[in-house]
């Protein structure tokens, strides 16, 4: 039997308890935030077979129920980029995948990747990663100082109007840019690729055939937007794993309300906002896009 290639550490295929101290430095990393995706909609579509390309990677075919670190995009991503991913919905403390070195931290464990910088992105850059952001919603559009804060944390960032919430083909355009980014990297360069998917965010009515602007967005058009993302996410997974094994995290940053208990939207404290779907898993080298 031949020994494993140097890019492959002694980590199991089962990603339930990954040792990030071994994965960081040997794997490429992919973080996808499905901006505004509701947990209940994600669970229903996976169970009904309506998101097959995502579901095939979910452990056991199901999403994990977690709590968002914020109720809207900016707050949640500031926390995520500091290492505070959505938290498992049971009582903790829960070991984290990434954490800044901090005395007394109860969620830093033996398998946590610990960094000595203010945020995960600079921590990964310090150990040789190229950090790349492909933005989606307005907090990533770089059109004003506030929209430049989050993408400014990366070594390289991309945003075009075609990536934004008003584009019916936003995710296809984002995936195409991701493919270009990966193709342009030297083989030996480790990559942390972040994609903020805008398609779930309002407006999303145009993803449901027959829906109208006048009728507006609904839980049903939100579900249709997730089906649209699923149809193209295989290409993103294939690109992310085209050079070596990739560790992927796919989650929502927060949910949104569609009339739940009289609430609409997010940046509010409701179950539909705080509860989010989450998964992490390995993508094997040379994964074939559907």
What percentage of residues falls in helices of 4 or more residues? 25-40%
Which structural class do you get from the secondary structure elements? alpha/beta
Separate helix tally? 9
- What percentage of the residues does DSSP assign to strands (E)? 15-25%
Report the uncertain regions.
1-14
Pfam family, one: Sulfatase
Organism: Streptomyces gelaticus
Domain Sulfatase N-terminal: 29-272
Protein name: Membrane protein
General description of the model:
- There is one protein chain.
- The protein is an alpha/beta fold and 290 residues long.
- The chain has nine helices and twelve strands.
- It has an eight-stranded mixed beta sheet with strand order 3-2-12-9-1-8-6-7, sandwiched between helices. The chain has a two-stranded parallel ribbon with strand order 4-5. The chain has a two-stranded antiparallel sheet with strand order 10-11.
- Helix 6 links the parallel strand 6 and strand 7.
- The radius of gyration is 18 Å and the shape is globular.
- The chain starts with 19 loop residues before the first helix and ends in a 7-residue tail after the last strand.
- 45% of the residues are buried.
- The N terminus is likely disordered.
Key structural traits:
8-stranded mixed sheet, 20% strand, 9 helices, two-stranded parallel sheet, alpha/beta
Describe what is shown at a glance.
The chain has 290 residues and is of the alpha/beta class. The protein has helices spanning 20-23, 39-47, 52-55, 73-80, 120-126, 146-149, 170-183, 219-240, 271-274, and strands at residues 28-34, 64-67, 87-88, 98-100, 113-115, 129-134, 156-158, 190-197, 246-251, 257-260, 263-265, 275-283.
């Amino acid at each position: 039997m031949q020994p494993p290639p140097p890019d492959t550490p002694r980590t199991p295929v089962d990603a339930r308890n990954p040792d990030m101290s071994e994965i960081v430095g040997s794997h490429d990393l992919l973080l996808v935030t499905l901006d505004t995706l509701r947990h209940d909609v994600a669970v229903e579509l996976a169970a009904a077979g309506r998101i097959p390309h995502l579901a095939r990677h979910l452990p056991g075919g199901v999403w994990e129920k977690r709590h968002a670190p914020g109720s809207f995009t900016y707050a949640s991503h500031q926390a995520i980029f500091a290492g505070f991913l959505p938290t498992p919905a049971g009582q903790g403390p829960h070991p984290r995948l990434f954490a800044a070195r901090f005395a007394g931290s109860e969620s830093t464990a033996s398998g946590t990747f610990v960094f000595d910088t203010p945020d995960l992105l600079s921590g990964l850059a310090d150990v040789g990663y190229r950090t790349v952001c492909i933005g989606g919603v307005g907090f990533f559009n770089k059109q004003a100082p506030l929209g430049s804060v989050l993408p400014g944390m990366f070594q390289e960032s991309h945003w075009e109007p075609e990536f934004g919430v008003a584009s019916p083909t936003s995710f296809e355009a984002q995936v195409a840019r991701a493919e270009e980014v990966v193709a342009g990297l030297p083989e030996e360069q480790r990559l942390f690729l972040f994609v903020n998917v805008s398609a779930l965010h309002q407006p999303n009515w145009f993803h449901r055939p027959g829906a109208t602007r006048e009728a507006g967005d609904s839980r049903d058009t939100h579900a249709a937007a997730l089906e649209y993302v699923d149809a193209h996410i295989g290409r993103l997974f294939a690109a992310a794993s085209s050079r070596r094994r990739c560790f992927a995290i796919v989650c929502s940053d927060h949910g949104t309300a569609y009339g739940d208990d009289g609430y609409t939207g997010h940046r509010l404290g409701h179950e539909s906002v705080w509860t989010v779907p989450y998964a992490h898993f390995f993508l094997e080298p040379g994964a074939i896009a559907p």
